[in-house]
Specification:
With 587 residues, this protein is of the alpha/beta class. It contains 24 helices and 21 strands. Helix 15 links the parallel strand 14 and strand 15. Helix 23 packs antiparallel against helix 24.
């Protein structure tokens, strides 16, 4: 296969696309076309010969993606970087509709979904080092790449007197202003060393390794190779709370995000624990990335085609989801899933349903598509009276165990699911919700630390208007600490993981079932009780589930907010602050 890689010529110097080029070289012979228009506007790339290649890869540059002839879209893969497209608008995405997009940022992937662009989300991680840095003394490394952040701005966000030594790297990206020098007073008071561009990359890595704290050099990133090079060494990293940095760092868990509602300015503490968690997150992320390479290969080489079908209206032999009954039967019968009921297993997925045909089929298809089928699957039906009952009769016994009996609501059914389940852990994926991708279970089972009680991650929320919204889960210990002191806000509330993206040790659910006085938000109360009771939690730091609107919480928002407030008051030490937030908020 003949592949043409079209990229920014500055990346020849930085090497930030090197890892992807190495991957392309496993697919075929790679030729290069480097854009220098940013240096000289008269050096406009000639794209006339693109048609002679089997695969066209456009790396980062939106203006080049716009210029690719439409008849070549089917063999074009665009790899955007968040910092280059964050403010580009929907018109650009509509313009390239028909290309395939590899999104190294959750935020870009969501933008593609909202604009009906074919996209696969991949998160790159390098291989982690085995040992964390020495933290007997704090040493800072900062590389100014843009006008902001610079030495003056980081001095505000991060008190510099906490560092025994500071290394300032002067290598500003072309066209991004001048390096801000430390003042004479800074040089007199602080132990500051300076460097400029290292022609030898290993010399840069050696300078980096001499520090144990790193400040990310940009406010937004494409992938963030400099940040990842620091994280893979276990350095405590501080970054702006924006993509892609906030897709790698969970504030307080494996680094710090600023500005945040918790710390301003950032005081470095718990550094040894944060360093260890950073290395663990990079190690598990690298394993996930290696497992995604086959998915990238398939996505790039598969014939391009429509992936966004309209929801079909009910017909004689079709359901409202657009899935014919025969197709549903094929999906379930061909699924490589032998239900693990009556045998010990690591994970049970529980789907609670009542009178929801469309939602049930969507969830069944998602579970059936998992690359790893080593789990038990339970469906707890609340004695449905519509077509749901007939759909359940068509579910093969080898695929799922079905319990159908009346219950008093979703959380009663979820408690029942925990009692029936055989798995060590339980994931509730109720009718209408789906797992984020077909490798979700595989990734979860690969990242279960010993002794953990609750594993949680991010989710994508899909309102009824058809759009998609990424919700990043905050670190649960930090979330609960903020609640205790009354530091609550919309950001705090949105950072609580939903039950669709939470995997819980079954014993915890048996010992302390969901409190049925809360019909809508019992999962919040359960999580807070577990954290308060010293349950061991683990942030998976990936998107686990797609959560679709239209359920109880969106249909009964006032009751939902009432329960949120009641639960928060139960767990806070500052009831006046919590009451003020819920009473004054517009939900």
């Amino acid at each position: 296969m003949n592949i043409i890689f079209v990229g920014h010529s500055h990346h020849q110097k930085t090497g930030s696309s090197r890892f992807f080029i190495s991957f392309l070289e496993t697919l075929g012979e790679v030729s290069f076309l480097w854009d220098e228009e940013w240096i000289n506007p008269s050096k406009r790339l000639d794209l006339l010969n693109l048609g002679s290649f089997d695969l066209i890869v456009v790396w980062q540059i939106p203006s080049i993606a716009r210029r690719v002839p439409k008849d070549l879209f089917s063999r074009t893969v665009y790899v955007p970087m968040y910092d280059a497209v964050s403010k580009i608008g929907a018109r650009f995405w509509r313009k390239i509709r028909g290309m395939r997009v590899i999104s190294f940022s959750h935020a870009i992937h969501i933008e593609c979904l909202n604009n009906k662009v074919q996209s696969i989300h991949i998160q790159y991680y390098p291989q982690a080092h085995t040992q964390p840095p020495n933290f007997s003394k704090l040493s800072l490394f900062f590389w100014q790449r843009q006008s902001i952040p610079n030495w003056r701005t980081i001095s505000v966000d991060v008190p510099t007197t906490q560092f025994d030594r500071i290394h300032l790297h002067s290598a500003v990206d072309p066209g991004n202003g001048k390096f801000i020098e430390p003042t004479e007073s800074d040089l007199r008071i602080l132990n500051i060393q300076q460097s400029s561009w290292f022609e030898d990359f290993n010399a840069y890595l050696a300078a980096l390794a001499s520090a144990n704290v790193f400040i990310a050099p940009r406010l937004e990133e494409g992938i963030g190779m400099a940040l990842l090079e620091a994280m893979q060494r276990g350095m405590v990293c501080i970054a702006n709370n924006a993509p892609t940095m906030n897709e790698y760092i969970v504030h307080g868990m494996n680094g710090y995000l600023t500005p945040t509602p918790y710390d301003a300015p950032v005081i470095i503490e718990r550094n040894q624990q944060i360093s260890i968690r950073t290395l663990q997150s990079v190690e598990s992320g690298h394993r996930r990335y290696l497992k995604q390479l086959e998915a990238i290969r398939s996505f790039m080489l598969a014939p391009a085609g429509p992936r966004f079908r309209k929801i079909l209206t009910p017909a004689k032999n079709k359901l409202a989801t657009g899935l014919p009954r025969a197709q549903l039967r094929r999906i379930l019968s061909s699924a490589d899933h032998v239900n693990r009921h009556h045998t010990e297993c690591k994970l049970t997925i529980v789907t609670v349903v009542r009178n929801d045909v469309q939602g049930l089929i969507k969830t069944l298809a998602s579970v059936a598509s998992q690359s790893c089928q080593d789990f038990e699957y339970l469906i707890i039906d609340g004695k449905s009276t519509d077509q749901t009952a007939s759909i359940l009769k068509g579910v093969p016994e080898k695929f799922a165990k079905i319990v159908s009996e009346a219950d008093s609501g979703p959380y009663d059914a979820m408690n029942k699911g925990a009692r029936v389940a055989q798995g060590e852990f339980v994931l509730y994926l109720n009718a209408g919700d789906t797992l984020y991708c077909n490798q979700t279970v595989e990734f979860l089972l690969d990242d279960m630390p010993p002794g953990v009680d609750i594993i949680y991650g991010h989710h994508v929320y899909h309102p009824q208007d058809g759009s998609s919204q990424l919700n990043l889960a905050k670190w649960l210990p930090e979330t609960f600490k903020s609640l205790e002191v009354g530091n609550v806000s919309y950001t705090w509330l949105s950072g609580i993981p939903c039950h669709q993206s939470t995997i819980t040790r079954r014993k915890c659910l048996i010992d302390r079932p969901y409190d049925l006085q809360f019909r809508i938000a019992a999962d919040h109360d359960f999580l807070f009780d577990q954290v308060k009771g010293s349950a061991k939690t683990h942030h998976h730091n990936t998107v686990i589930a797609n959560y679709y609107g239209g359920g109880l919480s969106s249909k009964h928002i006032s009751q939902c907010v009432h329960e949120w407030k009641k639960i928060a008051l139960k767990h806070t030490k500052e009831p006046n602050l919590v009451s003020r937030f819920y009473d004054e908020g517009k939900f």
